[in-house]
Design a protein that fits this description.
The protein is mainly alpha-helical and 198 residues long. The protein is built from six helices and no strands.
Length: 198
């Protein structure tokens, strides 16, 4: 492949990466609003955690777009560090919130809006994660690849939250909601360790 063809290919891949991140960003901005409405009516810890995770995904997507528009090693390290710190903060907050909820026996109200949004989010995030993993690999870009794992975790978390809401609503297992939040804590810790090791 000629040098000019390689440059053109790389530009196409960077545009694809930015497009994937912009789609993720837009979806999560809408998601924060939808989840805020759902949480206000249900007081679900899992939905609250998922809304906070959406805020982190917004930050992570913004960092990746910034990194893709002027890639260098220093920028990549800073971008990865910022994503890792965001995960540490999310995990710490949710750990305390879930522990308090379990200790007090707080019961969340059913939330059809929250359940519908998390189901749609799971499908969208799995598709975006696949695209980011592929483009990140082709670009040999560790930041896009790491953020692709963040998006995959977002899809897994949406599935977990949906399960917690469903068990609570259908079977009355009130503890399933904060336990779903603890799943988010575990994944946040795992991703933070992975990012800082890189």
């Amino acid at each position: 492949m000629s040098a000019s063809a390689e440059v053109a290919r790389r530009k196409r891949l960077v545009r694809a990466g930015i497009g994937l991140e912009a789609t993720t960003l837009g979806w999560n901005v809408v998601g924060v609003v939808v989840l805020a409405i759902a949480v206000s009516s249900s007081a679900s810890v899992a939905l609250l955690g998922f809304g906070l995770d959406s805020l982190i995904e917004i930050g992570a997507s913004t960092v990746v777009i910034w990194e893709l528009t002027g890639s260098d090693e220093g920028r990549q390290r800073l971008a990865l560090r910022l994503i890792g710190i965001a995960f540490v903060l999310l995990g710490a907050y949710l750990l305390v919130q879930a522990a308090v909820t379990l200790a007090t026996g707080h019961r969340a109200a059913p939330s059809p809006l929250g359940a519908g949004w998390t189901a749609a989010t799971a499908a969208v995030m799995f598709l975006l994660a696949f695209g980011k993993a592929r483009v990140g690999r082709l670009l040999a870009n560790p930041v896009l690849a790491a953020e692709g794992r963040v998006t995959l975790v977002d899809g897994i978390l949406a599935t977990s939250v949906l399960l917690g809401i469903g068990l609570d609503g259908l079977l009355g297992w009130w503890w399933a909601d904060p336990v779903a939040a603890l799943v988010i804590v575990a994944y946040a810790a795992r991703e933070a360790v992975h990012i800082f090791r890189e």
